[in-house]
């Protein structure tokens, strides 16, 4: 299980950890900021991991990533471009650098 990376008293984002769901069992919570997280089934986590790995390898092959997790009401949607991935939010998009994308890909694959 991977928890938050600590740097002093503050959390460092993004991170992935296992969380229980009363109906779906173990899930992965991908936390991108204090206010932005996605609860994914283990298979959804592996699927997003593969998508992150693919765009980190060659971002020019797709413009957008999309996933509708069954354990939450919202969707995961992100624009892919040369500088990384911009996750759609209700406000300003949340930017993930390529280092963030590769780290999330690794953590979602092994959890």
Structure, explained:
- The chain is an alpha+beta fold and 111 residues long.
- The chain has helices spanning 42-57, 98-110, and strands at residues 5-7, 10-12, 15-21, 25-33, 36-41, 64-67, 76-81, 84-87, 94-96.
- A 4-stranded antiparallel sheet has the order 6-7-8-9.
- A hairpin with a 2-residue loop joins strand 4 (25-33) and strand 5 (36-41).
- Helix 1 (42-57) runs antiparallel to helix 2 (98-110).
- The protein starts with a strand and ends with a helix.
- Mean pLDDT is 90; it is low at 4-8.
Break the fold down into its secondary structure elements and pairings.
Blueprint lengths: L4 E3 L2 E3 L2 E7 L3 E9 L2 E6 H16 L6 E4 L8 E6 L2 E4 L6 E3 L1 H13 L1
Antiparallel strand pairs: 1-2, 3-4, 4-5, 6-7, 7-8, 8-9
Q: How is this structure best summarized?
A:
By secondary structure, this protein is of the alpha+beta class. It has helices at 42-57, 98-110; strands spanning 5-7, 10-12, 15-21, 25-33, 36-41, 64-67, 76-81, 84-87, 94-96.
Strand content: 35-45%
Strand order of the largest sheet: 6-7-8-9
The shape, in one word, is globular
Structural class, please?
alpha+beta
Counted beta strands = 9
Order of helices and strands: EEEEEHEEEEH
Question: What are the main properties of this structure?
Answer:
111 residues; alpha+beta; four-stranded antiparallel β-sheet; 2 helices
């Amino acid at each position: 299980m991977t928890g938050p990376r600590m740097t002093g008293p503050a959390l460092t984002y993004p991170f992935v950890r296992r969380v229980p769901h009363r109906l779906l069992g173990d899930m992965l919570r991908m936390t991108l900021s204090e206010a932005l997280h996605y609860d994914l089934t283990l298979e959804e986590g592996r699927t997003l991991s593969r998508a992150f790995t693919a765009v980190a390898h060659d971002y020019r092959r797709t413009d957008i990533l999309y996933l509708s997790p069954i354990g939450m009401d919202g969707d995961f949607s992100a624009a892919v471009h040369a500088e990384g991935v911009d996750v759609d939010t209700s406000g300003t998009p949340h930017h993930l650098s390529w280092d963030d994308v590769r780290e999330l890909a690794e953590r979602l694959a092994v959890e």
